[in-house]
Design goal:
Elements lengths: L33 E3 L13 H13 L3 E5 L2 E5 L2 E3 L3 E5 L3 E5 L8 E6 L2 E6 L3 E4 L5 E4 L2 E3 L3 H13 L14 E4 L2 E6 L2 E3 L6 E4 L2 E6 L2 E3 L13 E4 L2 E6 L2 E3 L3 E6 L14 E8 L2 E2 L4 E5 L5 E23 L6 E22 L15 E21 L6 E17 L11 E9 L2
Parallel strand pairs: 1-2, 2-5, 3-6, 4-9, 5-10, 6-11, 9-12, 10-13, 11-14, 12-15, 13-16, 14-17, 15-18, 16-19, 17-20, 18-21, 19-22, 20-23, 21-24, 22-25, 23-25, 24-25, 25-26, 26-27, 27-28, 28-29
Antiparallel strand pairs: 7-8
Amino acid sequence: MTNSKQIEFFPDGSKIDDWFYEYYVPNLEDLGKQYVLTDYNIYSDGKIYTNEIQAIIDMAFENGGGVIVVPEGTFMTGSLYFKQGVNLYICKNGILKGSDDPSDYDVCLTRIEGETCNYLVALINADGIDGFKIMGEGMIDGNGLHSWKSFWHRRKWNPKCTNKDEQRARLVYVSNCSNVLFANVTLSNSQFWTTHIYKCNHVKYLNCTITSPSEPVKAPSTDAIDIDVCTDVLIKGCYLEVNDDAVALKGGKGINADTDASNGLNERIIVEDSTYGFCHSCLTCGSESIHNRNIIVRRIKVNSGKNLLWLKMRPDTPQLYEGILIDQVEAKVTSFININPWTQFANLIDKEECLMSYAKNITISNTNCECTTYFNVKAQDDQYTLEEFKFDNLRIKAKLNRFNENIIKNLILNDVIIDEYN
């Protein structure tokens, strides 16, 4: 389906391409030869079938492509590697469920938390593929409870342990791919980040549900969608409820991050017509990010969250966040806007001064928001500058205002009403 509207533009004035208005989702029959798990002696019996499922993927690839079909039932596996022309379809009431044993996931050179290093691969992996699709009305379940408990137990022993110290697999990792489609599928209970796309272009999430719990056991660092050095990404009609950031823009970290070829820009990202349950932030720049440009979040509803917009400013990384538009939002959050130094695990090495970062051309408009704090923004002139912000047609109900117009240079306020309450 194509739904071209009037000509629209990104914040820098460039035209939004027609690709962003094309919402076609193929049928199962359109994906080629079907390889149904149960036709190959793979059953819903609690056994781990990693090698058997990988053999089917390899066979489909050798036969010219097709689709791996997960029928009704729960099918267990460790890390899987998809190949060119081989897609994944989860049928209604079907579950592809990850093992909770870290040894069922390979350790190899991968991208995680803004760096390339040895770490666990994801449950579903795809690299260098054109046209990879994950579809269906069923679920991919990361089976994360054991890893979450282990992580919090480790934190009791070592409060300074990092996210990677407890070996946890991501749910989906897609790298160096183009024309990727996630459609209608549910992605839940990831051990670590839920979906991570790296150096990809033209990626669509259409009508997906992405969840992880915040209680009774918090699912740590289970971001719904991590966008890492990618261009042209559309997230539309999705439901996002996770115990961390819903959409996080990554891209690299460290004092030389902007000169490292493995890092880079996120550009032309649109999130629209989506609903958020609990999350730490609806849109986050960071904590590993060097340049984000032409980002639009519009027509969203936030039922519960900590931050509507969160700009994490690292003292050890040169950052530029520019051309961000948040428009037509109904939200209930803790902070309307959060811009503060982000020092967790920061490392200036031998530098005595912070690296300078910049945020500019940021617009929030046509928004109704109930929040605890309206303006959670800290001035830090030796680390970052904020300029060319515009707040337009805002209706804010806030317990704490804390607005300070001197923090942002060239700030434009138009029809902003703050209703403070005790």
